[in-house]
Amino acid sequence: MSVPGTPAQVLIDDLQKSFPSASRGSGQVVIHTTNGSAFTAAQQKAISELLVTVDEVPNVDAVVNPFSTTAERTKFETQITQGLAQISAAKATLTAQQKQLDAAKAALDQAAAAMPAAQAEIALATQRGQLVAGQKQLDEAKATLASKESELLAGQQLLTAASQMRLVSADGSAAVATVFFDTPGSQVTSAQKAAVVAAFDKSPIDGVTVEYTSNLTQNLDGLMGPGELVGLGIAAIVLFIMLGTLVAAGLPVLAAIIGVGISVGVTFGLSKWVDMTSTTPMLGLMLGLAVGIDYALFILNRHRNQLKSGMKVPASIALANGTSGSAVLFAGVTVIIALIALNLTGIGFLGLMGTVGAASIVVAVLVALTFTPALLSLLGTRVLSKKERAAVPAEDHHTEDHVSVKPVFANRHPWVTAIVSIIALAIVALPVSTMRLGLPDGSAEPTDSTQYRAYSITSDKFGEGVNGQISTIVKLDQPLTGSAMTAAQAEMATRLMKVDNVVAVAAAGTSSDNKTILFQVVPTEGPSALTTEKLVFELRALSPEFENTWHGTLGATGFTAVQIDISKTLSDALPLYLTTVLLLALFVLLMVFRSILVPIVAAGGFLLTIFATLGAVTAVYQWGWLGEIFGVHDPAPILSFLPTILIGILFGLAMDYQLFLVTGMREGFVHGQSANDSINHGIHLSRRVVVAAAIIMISVFGSFGFSHLTMIRPMGFGLGLGVLFDAFIVRLLIVPAVMTILGKSAWWIPKWLDRILPDVDVEGAKLERSGGAAAKVAN
């Protein structure tokens, strides 16, 4: 994932031109003994031979052998130690020689003092010349020695700064090999990564296990896992309980599967030309299943009710598609607009996710409005059970007369309902104040995965910070070479080591023009830690100091810095997106319900849903509450784009429920019912299908909370919980309770505004009122 224009991404783009080797894609392989003992000589040899084989894999540029690199480092340390010892001995010799020379000078001066000046000048000229030449040679030797000592001390400084950065663990039982590809990280394909993994797996070594980090194994193993299938099964059971027949229950599921097949198939086809994250098609799958089932259900439920009232099949299909179908179309459009609006964030991969998600909604709507009526026509009255078919009256008893119904709890106790519900959601929302955003690392993977084992072994054997290394780049105005470059690197590394929460700094290379220097900075904690996030910004803050001292700028990049920049960008864009969505909600609801207060109540309820959902997500995934249930073994910051995705999708779904529940209330009020009676009428009219639709969505979304893909789990959990909060607490409790409190004023609108607003008949009420004509046309 990348966001153009962020500091880390700008640096990566620049490095691809000025320092290509620094921007190469890479992956780490953690090799360890199965019994925890140190590697034997035979095992080290076998591993080294295996790494040579991996180096020959196509698209692999280089493989860092941890054993040879460690041996070279040890040799370098020995050379520096011996060199400094030799220099110390040489300095002692030069000091002794200087004393001898000084003594000779003193003796010569004493002899000269005992002679007449003219005689001394002639007699001692040769000796004085020899002493001057000797002093010159001694000074030159001192200068050469000082230069060598400075170079060795600079090397020692670099070794000291990197002393805690190891490739072989202190106990000798684990090693980290790095595989470099010949293209930038964003261009390394899954097939190229798989080839590297296959090369390691092809030649197993006795007593040695190989684990792979997430940057070598991230792929889309499969769309549907066991959890998702369970969710689909629950949805089918709910449909069967509600509809009473397998034929009727299977229709919405079949419609959703057909829609998902089309949208996901097209998405994978486009991935040949359009770069997208692995979560993009999964989002389309998740939305397509949940929305596809619900949209077909709305039309089917209306059709079944009409058939049970005696309406003929053709007329019923026409009327169901003209009424509930219109509502489905409008509801789908609201979700589509909310998802398309993700492009307003200016973040490419997030906008693409929204666009693909919106496309899946388009397909779901089209399938609901075409395939569903066609299949209903083929099925005829078989969408009803035998008992329901037997009870169908001889002629259409469909009527507009409103039946008196028992007031719902929210209508009878509005203040209690509203206050208790709002307080409950506010309590659930409390954790959102501590929410931090980030991208998942290896610690978020399932505990039985190779990615998690690689992350854990690295943390245990090498320190947490090794998993969160920060690539720090210094760009010089003028090139440095030789000892000047070494001295500058040593001074820079020493300065970087003084920054809080830095464990080690390693000079990792210089560009071919000697104007760019790469350091790897190891923080004290992992990539998701708050201290690591602060460290990235503290390193960048050193740039003015580096400019003054070494005439160069300093920047931070790499996976850790990139994820921090992405999270910050998304966090900054969130208020704008939320404001846009709220304004859109107010406009849409104002147009549909022709009321000032109803849109405000609905939008306020949506805000409660969002904050409560994010609060619950924070408690589970960041705090670790109920982690054993949802597979959260290492709590971490919330997926950076999750809040934005939740806002977009839940907005559309919240408007769906608002639409199906409150349009019935408005129709009742317009047709002369009291404010209270109209509220009860609307709830009783749509409650059953809305509850069933919500349960289905919760089942489908919630099942993705147990997905095999790390990034999908919090999305599924958040969406499932968001639907639960919005449908059952906000729309079925808070909205009717507040509208009861408001009474007739809930439907007030200035006359001038009522005149200019378009008449949006989203549920086809006018068509329903002319049902006789519609029936004739349909027949």
Topology:
Elements lengths: L6 H12 L5 E10 L7 H15 L4 E5 L1 H48 L3 H7 L1 H37 L12 E11 L5 H13 L5 E5 L1 H4 L8 H18 L2 H25 L8 H30 L4 H28 L7 H32 L6 H5 L18 H4 L1 H16 L7 E2 L11 H13 L7 E7 L5 H16 L4 E9 L5 E8 L6 H11 L2 H8 L1 E6 L1 H35 L3 H26 L4 H4 L7 E2 L2 H29 L4 H30 L7 H31 L8 H6 L8 H5 L1 H8 L1
Parallel strand pairs: 5-10
Antiparallel strand pairs: 1-3, 1-4, 2-3, 6-8, 6-9, 7-8
Overall description:
With 779 residues, the protein is an alpha+beta fold. Among the domains are: 72-161; 223-236 and 246-271 and 287-322 and 339-356 and 363-395, no CATH class; 407-462 and 573-764, Multidrug efflux transporter AcrB transmembrane fold, CATH 1.20.1640.10. It is 66% helix and 8% strand. It has helices at residues 7-18, 41-55, 66-113, 117-123, 125-161, 190-202, 214-217, 226-243, 246-270, 279-308, 313-340, 348-379, 386-390, 409-412, 414-429, 450-462, 482-497, 530-540, 543-550, 559-593, 597-622, 627-630, 642-670, 675-704, 712-742, 751-756, 765-769, 771-778, and strands spanning 24-33, 60-64, 174-184, 208-212, 437-438, 470-476, 502-510, 516-523, 552-557, 638-639. The strands form three sheets. A four-stranded antiparallel sheet has the order 2-3-1-4, sandwiched between helices. α8 (226-243) packs antiparallel against α24 (675-704) and α11 crosses α23 (642-670). The longest helix is centred in the N-terminal third of the chain and has 48 residues, at 66-113. The protein starts with 6 loop residues before the first helix and ends with a helix. The model is unreliable at 772-779 (pLDDT under 50).
